[in-house]
Structures are given as structure tokens and as C-alpha cells.
Write a structure and sequence with these properties.
The protein is mostly helical. It contains five helices and two strands; from the N terminus they run H-E-H-H-E-H-H. 73% of the residues lie in helices and 3% in strands.
């Protein structure tokens, strides 16, 4: 039979483990939400809707005057490690996700806001 202090310790550890697991699930959910809007951005860059970005689509969409065309090409090929001459949204997300930091929370919030707006618009249409 367990002593009272042992039972309390087990309960506290179990609660701590459950809390940690729930926090991880919440972080994963937020990350997935942030990443899906991130992927939507990449889909917009895919002008011919073939599910991947060519170098031309990549340069056209992401050119902002900061990187030169040569630097953009270098970035493209550093992401395209298998040298397929195209990037799919998964490759782009995989490459850029680790660099999002706190912006992942921003993207997640934007996605939630977008969903709320769409729901409100649907409700307005019904009325």
C-alpha cells in the first residue's frame, strides 16, 4: 500500500504530465494553423496551379528588391535540395517554418480571424 505522500507525488506528477501533454497538443494545433495559412501564401505564388513553384514563379512572387535575382536563385536552389527545379508547398514550409518564431502565433491568429470572418459572412448571407 502506498503512503499518502507517495500517492500525492504520483498524482502531482500525473497532472504535470497531462498538463505538459496538453500544452504540446495546443502548440502543435497552433503550429498547424499557422503553417496552413503559410502554405496558402505559397499556393498564391503558384500561378499555373501545378502544386509547385518554378524558379520564375518563385522569383516573381518573392522579389521585393532586397535580394538580387542571383540571390533569389541561390535561395531557390538551396531549398530545392533534390534538384527537381521546382518547390512544392511542403518544401517551402519545411524550409521556412523553423524561422517563423513568434510569427507562427501571428499567422495562427490571422487564420483564426480569417475563419471567423468567413463564418460571419456566411451568417450574413443567410440573413
Amino acid at each position: 500500500m502506498l503512503a499518502c505522500t507517495e500517492m500525492i507525488t504520483i498524482c502531482l506528477q500525473s497532472a504535470k504530465h497531462d498538463h505538459h501533454r496538453k500544452q504540446q497538443q495546443l502548440q502543435q494545433k497552433n503550429q498547424n494553423q499557422g503553417i496552413s495559412i503559410f502554405q496558402d501564401i505559397f499556393r498564391r505564388a503558384d500561378k499555373n496551379d501545378d502544386g509547385k513553384l518554378s524558379l520564375e514563379e518563385f522569383q516573381s512572387y518573392f522579389a521585393d528588391g532586397i535580394l538580387t535575382p542571383e540571390q533569389m536563385q541561390e535561395l531557390f536552389y538551396s531549398i530545392d535540395r533534390q534538384q527537381t527545379d521546382n518547390l512544392d508547398t511542403d518544401k517551402l514550409s519545411e524550409y521556412f517554418s523553423p524561422h517563423l518564431g513568434e510569427y507562427l502565433n501571428v499567422l495562427s491568429a490571422l487564420e483564426k480571424l480569417n475563419v471567423a470572418i468567413l463564418k460571419a459572412m456566411d451568417k450574413t448571407k443567410e440573413v
